[in-house]
Amino acid sequence: MPDDLPLVSILTPSFNQGRFLRDCLESVARQTYPRIEHVVVDGGSTDETLAVLESADESVRWCSEPDRGQADALNKAFGKSSGEIVGWVNSDDGLFSRDSLERVVAAFAEHPGAGVVYGDAALVDESGRIVRHYRSRWPKGTLPLVSPLAQPAAFFRRAAVETGEPVLRIDLHRFLDYELWLRLRSQGASFVRIPKVLAVDRDHSQRKVRTTDELFGRESAQLVEEYGPVFGVPRLRRVGGLAQRVRGLSSVWSWERYEPAFPWHVDGRTRRLVRQVAKLDPVQLTDEQRRFGREVADVKRRPS
Q1: 3-state DSSP helix/strand/coil percent for the chain, to nearest 5?
Q2: pLDDT at position 34, please?
Q3: Residue 295's pLDDT is what?
Q4: What does the pLDDT look like over 210-233, one tens digit per residue?
C-alpha cells in the first residue's frame, strides 16, 4: 500500500447484532481505497456475533469484552486505531458504495482545514431494502432537535479531537454523536459536505432512536445547559423537510448507478419516489420532543 496515502480508521461498536454485522464488515472490506483499518469492539455478545468476527478477514481487528455501553466501546476502538481520518460505522449500518472512502479522503485532501467531512445516507429496512434518501446538512446557526448529520456518513480528523479527551462521553446515550459534533463546532472545526450518498443507516425495531425516547428530553436539556440554546424548531419545518426530501429524488431514481459495498437492494422506481416524498418511515419526532423544541425556542426569544 502506498505510504503517502492517509490511513482511514473505521470504528465499529458491537453488541448482539450478529445478524447485521456481516453486512457492515463486507461494506468496509469492499472499499476500493487501499489504506483502511477496521477495528471492532464487541461488548460481550451472546448471539452469533463472535462467529461472524472469527470468520472475518484478517484485516479486521476485534475484541469482545464487557463495556459500559456504546460510547465506551467507541472510545476503546479509537484507542486501538491510528488512522488520520476516522469514521464510526455501527454494526447494523455500513458504507454505501465501493468508492465511499475514496470520496472522503479526496474531500479531506481538497479541504485541508476541514475537521469533519460528511455526506448523505440511504435509510434501509431490516432486509436491506432502501427506504429513502437522507440528506445531511450542518446549519451555521440554529440546529434541529435531531442530529442533521447521518452518523455513519460523517468522518473526522483524528487531530480535531483534543489529545487526552475521550471521543465520546459515556454519560450520553441518545445524543452521544450529536455532542461530538457540537463539541467540534465549539472548538472551531470546519464541516465540509460531500453531495453524495456515503453510508447506509439501517432502521429496525431495536435501534436506539426507537428504544431510548425517555432519554431525549434529559440529554437534550443537558446539552442546552452546556452549549447554550443551540436547538430550535423552524416555523417552516415541514416545508423545509419536504424540500430536503425532494432534493434527494435524483438519487432515489437512479440508485442502480452505484456499485454497492453494502448488500442493499431497491424496489420499483414509482414506489421509492412516493416513499421519498411522503416520508413513509416511522422515525418521527414525538410530542415530548416537539414540546422541548418549543421550550428551547421560547428561551431563545426571551430578552437577555
Answers
A1: 40, 20, 40
A2: 95
A3: 59
A4: 656 678 888 888 999 999 988 876
User: Which three cell numbers, joined as nine digits, stand for 144?
Assistant: 434541529
Do residues 184 and 106 touch, judged by C-beta distance below 8 A? no
Residue 303: pLDDT band with limits 50, 70, 90: very low
Q: Three-state SS for 81?
A: coil
**pLDDT the model gives residue 296:** 54
Distance CA 281, CA 276 (A): 9
From CA 11, how far away is CA 212, in angstroms rounded? 22
Q: Who contacts 268 (Cβ-Cβ below 8 Å, separation ≥6)?
A: none
Collapsed DSSP state (helix, strand, coil) of residue 106: helix
Q: What are the backbone dihedrals phi and psi of residue 296, each rounded to the nearest 5 degrees, phi first?
A: -65, -45
Report pLDDT for 287: 56
Superfamily grouping for domain 8-301: Spore Coat Polysaccharide Biosynthesis Protein SpsA; Chain A (3.90.550.10)
User: pLDDT value at position 260?
Assistant: 97
Of 199, 173, 229, residue with least CA distance to 117: 199
Q: 183 CB contacts (<8 Å, ≥6 apart)? A: none
pLDDT at 30 over 80: yes
Q: Tell which residue, 115, 117, 177, has the closest CA to residue 147.
A: 177
In 3D space, the residue among 131, 186, 121, 122 whose CA is nearest the CA of residue 153 turns out to be 121
Please report, for the chain, the start and end positions of each structural domain, with discontinuous segments joined by +: 8-301
